[in-house]
User: What shape does this take?
Amino acid sequence: MLHRCTLIVVLALSLAIAGCEKSKVTADNYAKIKVGMSLSEVTSILGSKYEDQTPSAGYNAGATGISATAATENIYVFTSNDTKILVTMKNGKVVDKSNPSN
Assistant: This one.
């Protein structure tokens, strides 16, 4: 019984410590994101929790008719508390970033 209680306490402490882990989504780390970086380089700085907000493909109506368009850029949003960082990528490389939280 004592072993089981010890195990429960250790697991609870582990979860508490993991929950207190500092977020990587900060102004300092935002400054580290550079044009030309890959997504793996960005996630090594900001962490692996992000939302892909790439707009879906659509249609354009022009003089020659209607044509389908593919999304040419990917938009990834990294969020923590009140901080939000948007990273725009094209062909697997960062082309823009913004911090709408500031």
In short: Residues 39 and 92 are 7 Å apart (CA to CA). The radius of gyration is 20 Å. The chain is about 30% helix and 30% strand.
